[in-house]
């Protein structure tokens, strides 16, 4: 049974009440869903990339909801209640931080910063302060700590693959026992990756900015990850 239909993924229940099936669709959106396309194979690429990264992070001690991949575009995951936050970690300036400040694109951010945004398209996902997060009943500290740890791991992984990890978005959820888990997905749909040698983009900005086809870019990421693991 369908539990939730998001912009690019669907969540279904399973025979196990503590697990869900997440299906990745051949769809890409930008601007809170105002721009969309349906590139063939995109769902499978994001599912496979996310599976590899979730498995690698799990091996490194990061608790996440991933259990196993089920076919090219589906995975079985622990059932969690997603916190209404998007957690962004930035290593270099790009995207909204450039649009809303005087910071120039590409400027290094040392040390990396962790930001919180309300997960609400209708309100255009506004930036939140730590105090506002706390007033929402959510302790920001463990989220910041986990985001920083994940950033360290992902920086190392993508550095070995020849990419600069510019920034990434992650989400967290709470399971039935009250435990915190990294959730949603980790793919070029939710991060920015620039080639170290060519400075080309290998992420959803290709679609956002009408700069190219995301499918071959995502496939390059997957091919390198598969060699890495």
Mind sketching the topology for me?
Blueprint: E1 2-5, E2 9-13, E3 19-24, E4 28-30, E5 35-37, H1 42-59, E6 66-69, E7 74-78, E8 81-82, E9 85-92, H2 96-99, E10 108-118, E11 127-128, H3 130-135, H4 140-161, E12 163-174, E13 180-183, E14 191-195, H5 205-208, H6 214-228
Antiparallel strand pairs: 1-2, 2-3, 3-7, 4-5, 6-7, 8-12, 9-10, 9-12, 10-11, 12-13, 12-14
Helix pairs in contact: 1-6
Please write the CATH class name of the largest domain. Alpha Beta
Instruction: Give me the secondary-structure category.
Output: alpha+beta
Helical fraction: 25-40%
- Residues in β-strands, percent: 25-35%
State the major sheet.
Answer: 7 strands, antiparallel
List the secondary-structure elements in sequence, H or E.
Answer: EEEEEHEEEEHEEHHEEEHH
Radius of gyration: 17 Å
Number of strands: 14
Mean pLDDT: 96
In CATH, the homologous superfamily of the largest domain goes by the name ATP-grasp fold, B domain
What is the CATH topology classification name of the largest domain? D-amino Acid Aminotransferase, Chain A, domain 1
Termini gap: 34 Å
Overview of this protein structure:
This protein is an alpha+beta fold and 229 residues long. The chain folds into 2 domains: 2-78, Phosphorylase Kinase, domain 1 (2-Layer Sandwich), CATH 3.30.200; 81-212, ATP-grasp fold, B domain (D-amino Acid Aminotransferase, Chain A, domain 1, 2-Layer Sandwich). It is built from 6 helices and 14 strands. The chain has helices at 42-59, 96-99, 130-135, 140-161, 205-208, 214-228, and strands spanning 2-5, 9-13, 19-24, 28-30, 35-37, 66-69, 74-78, 81-82, 85-92, 108-118, 127-128, 163-174, 180-183, 191-195. Strands 8, 9, 10, 11, 12, 13 and 14 form a 7-stranded antiparallel sheet that branches. It starts with a strand and ends with a helix.
